[in-house]
Specification:
elongated; alpha+beta; Heat Shock Protein 90; ATP-binding protein; four-stranded antiparallel β-sheet
Length: 99
């Protein structure tokens, strides 16, 4: 595996770990899905705690490593966002694949 691929995989695993917090601590049902497109990976996490919106890229004023999404998601993804319905919320990221 090339260094660029190893770095991309390490970043993806770090981001997936950050995104897994709602799956571990959110309201059930919760899920984490990943997708593989030609030039990017997409990761989406969803839970039923719609009243507690994911704060991207910064969570409750905490610095990176201080809980929540920190700066990891913003710094290591191509794009990211949050969507809330009346009974569910989803956070998503797009990660650019190495060339």
């Amino acid at each position: 595996m090339s260094p660029a691929v190893e770095d991309a995989v390490a970043r993806a695993l770090l981001i997936i770990d950050e995104l897994a917090h709602p799956v571990r601590h959110g309201a059930p049902p919760a899920s984490l899905h990943s997708g593989d497109e030609e030039e990017r990976w997409i990761v989406t996490v969803t839970d039923s705690a719609s009243h507690r919106l994911h704060r991207l890229p910064h969570s409750a004023g905490r610095p990176a490593g201080g809980g929540g999404y920190g700066h990891y998601v913003a710094d290591l993804t191509a794009t990211h966002g949050v969507h809330r319905d009346h009974d569910r919320k989803s956070g998503w990221v797009r990660l650019t694949k190495p060339s």
